[in-house]
């Protein structure tokens, strides 16, 4: 499999493509359904536990994960606004930190275990929903309407990159993959350096809401958007290689990690623009 900047898709096991011939029974996001007549073997029955995964599997599992995050996020946002209105910031911060740590631990378990798990993926989505919801509730108190803008912005970027991928407007080549991975690593190093130096009172200007912060946030949003291309391509390869349907949960987890990152960055950018 081609490399990806998303740790969820690292070191995945090989699928059953060899058992199906050159053209397996499954096709990816950019391939016509049904395979190529005369090649491979018929697809396993829909009820088979080890049937090859399909695009529908990825869409359904991602939808369930996203729906779980939205439900817990809305509940957390409403609760956070109520707590903030009563000046009770301690519980909000506690819930935010707790949800963030739970999400981090679950993500590490999923990544290093390298086994698909519906319950773990949904629990991760729920934890991230609480984390994002609590943050969004606070931002909504400060900047009314910012939550809807962030949600629409994230959805818009996701749909746009899916269209770009499906139409082949941008090909996921090895060169592009290396560029995206390098850019992602570079952005992560800068954010980490900014955080560490900030603890010592050094301001790099990357997160203070100024012009440089706005530019940096736009660049990070662009990098996150291009990461969707790698996520789509990796899910596509998992489908074409005939991996079992249960691995759709792993694809859903990978897409959720990028969605969470993108939403946070868009929310941050919108807050910067509100201050101008």
Q: What this model shows, in words?
A:
The protein has 276 residues and is an all-alpha fold. The protein has one domain. The radius of gyration is 20 Å and the shape is globular. The protein starts with 16 loop residues before the first helix and ends with a helix.
Shape: globular
Structure class: mainly alpha
Number of helices: 8
Strand fraction: under 5%
Between the first and last Cα atoms, what is the distance in angstroms?
A: 45 Å
Which sequence of SSEs, written as H and E, runs from N to C?
A: HHHHHHHH
Uncertain spans: 17-27, 31-46
Report the average pLDDT across residues: 83
Number of DSSP strands?
0
What about the largest sheet? none
Q: How many individual domains?
A: 1
In helices, the fraction of residues equals 55-70%
Oligomeric state: single chain
Q: What Rg, in angstroms, do the CA atoms define?
A: 20 Å
Quick gist of this model?
The chain has 276 residues and is mainly α.
Characteristic terms for this protein:
mainly alpha; 69% helix; 8 helices
Topology (elements, then pairings):
Blueprint: H1 17-20, H2 55-85, H3 89-113, H4 118-142, H5 146-167, H6 174-199, H7 211-240, H8 248-275
Helix pairs in contact: 2-4, 2-8, 3-4, 4-8, 5-7, 5-8, 6-7, 7-8
